[in-house]
Write a structure and sequence with these properties.
By secondary structure, the protein is mainly α. The chain is built from 19 helices and no strands. It starts with a helix and ends in a 5-residue tail after the last helix.
Length: 422
């Protein structure tokens, strides 16, 4: 019998490979291939990026059904859906390039997102890992953060060598020929349909019980958490696509603006690494509140009298780092507060409003910039960040109430146990 430690050590990099290729060959594709699609097919930027919106929207709409299915049937069996759908989408568009097949491919990518990417993998980990799952989800998110770093230059290199159709076709072949067999093997080797009863697995699957909440408090906490992460994500998904324009509007030259904006990925990865190393020592609700609290001041810094280059560098490092950590907390905080039971169902319900808002965010920010200018977009992001902060404060007050009550009861018992003198 294979011991659990090597199995889990082997599992994580295989899951990361599927996630990195899944996101790298879909979500980050238009940034590189967009100019070629415009030149060869006449696609406008709206048509190109509407594909991303379709993917995220379908992924969000599918999430509630997917989450319930993961909890009922196990998530492992759904993992192969991602490379299958992504591979077919790539081959469809590479073979018959048109606006219709472009949108059809992104619809397939949306199914992959809902049933085979982040939600499926995180639910799968909660079922096969148990204690320590938050750390492993954080490590996986850290690794997936390298997707644009790897695939932006790789896609550019493949396009130069094979043309954009060759690059897309190759990605389809990789998904179907490499990633799909690997996901099938994971589904067979690490099936989570039934929790096994061996003692070695039982210890690995036992997660610390979260503090109890009443039904009403639980519902309020979930709503507050959804509002906090959805509104925060509205800015973190919508603003980055326009951040270079903002930097230029506040005084940076184009080359400097691009250079500063390019540091966002490194800042997010560095912050995620720090969170993984020291995050276990800090309550995740505290980390959530601190990260959200710095967002609005960093946005306001861009319009301050400070030197534009200095303010831009401070902004991109702190704002991107905070959002990088929040991206991990978005999937680990519900696990901490409510436990692993029905995690897929809960995350599926939470993902629906989040993904729909995330899908609309780039278009909304583009419209605001077009009609009101970059300054208006900045104020919109600041307002969103402040709303998220209020929701995070509500969440902290509700979710930590049982802990405060428990500490108070312990203190009262300690006082009562102290002997008194007559």
């Amino acid at each position: 019998m294979t011991s659990p430690a090597p199995r889990l050590a082997l599992l994580l990099p295989f899951l990361a490979l599927g996630q990195i290729t899944g996101w790298g060959t879909t979500y980050y594709l238009p940034s590189v291939l967009g100019p070629s699609l415009t030149r060869d097919l006449g696609f406008g930027s709206t048509e190109i990026y509407l594909g991303v919106t379709i993917m995220v929207a379908i992924g969000g709409l599918a999430s509630p059904i997917a989450g319930r299915s993961f909890d009922r049937l196990g998530a492992a069996r759904f993992l192969p859906i991602a490379p299958l759908a992504i591979g077919l989408g790539h081959l469809l568009f590479a073979g018959l390039p048109s606006v219709a097949t472009w949108y059809a491919a992104w619809a397939l990518f949306g199914l992959a997102m809902g049933f085979g990417l982040t939600l499926a993998v995180n639910t799968f980990l909660t079922r096969v890992v148990g204690r320590g799952v938050r750390e492993r989800i954080g490590i996986l998110a850290l690794l997936v953060g390298f997707a644009p770093t790897l695939f932006w230059p790789l896609t550019a290199m493949l396009e130069a060598a094979l043309g954009w159709r060759g690059a897309v076709a190759l990605y389809g072949a990789v998904e179907l020929g490499l990633v799909l067999p690997l996901q099938l093997w994971i589904a067979a080797r690490w099936s989570d349909a039934v929790v096994v009863s061996e003692p070695v697995e039982a210890t690995a699957r036992t997660e610390a019980s979260p503090p109890p909440l009443t039904a009403r408090a639980r519902t309020t906490a979930i709503v507050a958490m959804v509002v906090a992460f959805t509104v925060q994500g509205f800015a973190s998904w919508g603003l980055p696509l326009h951040i270079i324009t903002l930097f230029e509007d506040f005084g940076l030259a184009h080359e400097a603006a691009v250079r500063v904006a390019a540091a966002s990925g490194a800042a997010a990865i560095a912050a995620r690494t720090i969170e993984i190393v020291v995050g276990q020592r800090i309550h995740p609700i505290t980390t959530t509140g601190l990260c959200i609290a710095v967002l609005a001041p960093m946005l306001a810094l861009l319009g301050s009298p400070l030197d534009p280059a200095t303010s831009a560098w401070i902004f991109i490092l702190v704002w991107s780092g905070a959002n990088g950590i929040l991206a991990i907390l978005r999937v680990t905080l519900p696990l901490h507060l409510f436990g692993a039971a029905a995690y897929g169902t809960l995350m599926g319900k939470m993902s629906l409003p989040q993904n729909l808002v995330f899908a609309a965010a780039p278009t909304i920010f583009a419209t605001v910039i077009e009609r009101g200018g970059p300054q208006a977009a900045l104020w919109l992001a600041i307002a969103a960040s402040l709303i998220a902060l209020v929701a995070a404060a509500v969440l902290a007050r509700i979710a930590r109430a049982p802990e405060r009550a428990a500490r108070g009861a312990s203190a009262a018992l300690a006082v009562a146990a102290v002997p008194t003198r007559d």
